[in-house]
Amino acid sequence: MKPVSLSEASLPSQIWNSAPQLDSIPVISTQSLVPTGARAVLIAPHPGDEVVTCGGLLQLLSNLGHPLQLISITDGSASHPGSRQWSEKRLSVFRPQESVEAIRRLGLPMHSLKWIRGGFTDNALVEHEDQIAQFITRYLRPGDVVFSTWREDGNVDHDTVGRASARAAANAGATYNDVPFWAWHWPARDRELIPWHRARKVRLDTWTVARKSHATHAYASQLDGEPAIGLAPLLPRPLLERIRLPYEIVLV
Predict the structure, then answer these.
(1) Which UniProt keywords apply (predicted)?
(2) What's residue 155's pLDDT?
(3) 3-state secondary structure of 35
(4) pLDDT digits 0-9 by tens, 82-140
């Protein structure tokens, strides 16, 4: 699946706000998704992906006392090619600060949260998929429940990290779950490409949704584009609207 284009991202009829299948997705409890005592591992291709995909689930798991581990494959510093305002040098400092603030806004315990940073380069992950899988494997153990971006999400970095994460989980004896990100913003006509039979809905209450939205807005560098050089916001308005839905969807 091709990535979402700017024109498609502005269309009102996208999968997330029009697909009839969304209403019939079975609900799964947090306890069924992550068994008591199991560690949850969230693997994000870029900073911010962990909040957009699983910001609500992370809060629920933290409240239940599950040990959490985040793995950020890149530092996101190459997200604005050609930008003077957000140079790679500036972003290499700023993006980690945004991530820490986002996690603080989610209410996660920074003192006990394990956060691994891979240091791989944005937009070049497909060339290093084997290395990424080996890197992730080092930090997994049997019984972990792993979440990462869907292997067919339509973004090359997301797809690559999803495949690498699935391989690493299999190598470590962990359970793997895909989490769509950009796929929800495909045009409505592509809804049949979603594996609805694997979809499960995690319910979120009002306060959990509010904290997730507040955390997403910590990524200030991603909220505004630079029209002068053709850069659109990396967190466009339709995405910010979608994350206020009272659920998150995982492919089990």
Answers:
(1) Hydrolase
(2) 94
(3) coil
(4) 777 777 788 788 888 898 999 999 999 887 789 999 989 887 899 999 999 999 999 99
Give the pLDDT confidence score for residue 224 in this predicted structure. Answer: 82
Question: Which amino acid, residue 174?
Answer: A
Residue 1 located in a structural domain: no
Query: Tell me, what's the pLDDT at 221?
Result: 86
Distance of CA 104 to the CA centre of its chain: 17
Residue 27 lies in a domain: yes
Give how many domains the chain has, as a whole number.
1
Q: 98: domain range? A: 6-251
Among residues 203, 161, 156, the alpha carbon closest in space to that of 178 is found at 161
- Whether the model clears a pTM of 0.85, i.e. scores above it, the answer is yes
Angle between helix axes 206-216 and 88-106 (nearest 10 degrees) is 160
In a domain, 131, yes or no: yes
In a domain, 47, yes or no: yes
Enumerate residue ranges in the chain where pLDDT < 70: 1-11
Residue in 141, 131, 139, 198 with CA at minimum distance from that of residue 175: 141
Our CA dihedral for 86, 152, 101, 37, rounded to 10 degrees, sits at: -160
CATH code, domain carrying 161:
3.40.50.10320
Quickly count: other Cβ atoms within 10 Å of residue 15's Cβ. Answer: 22
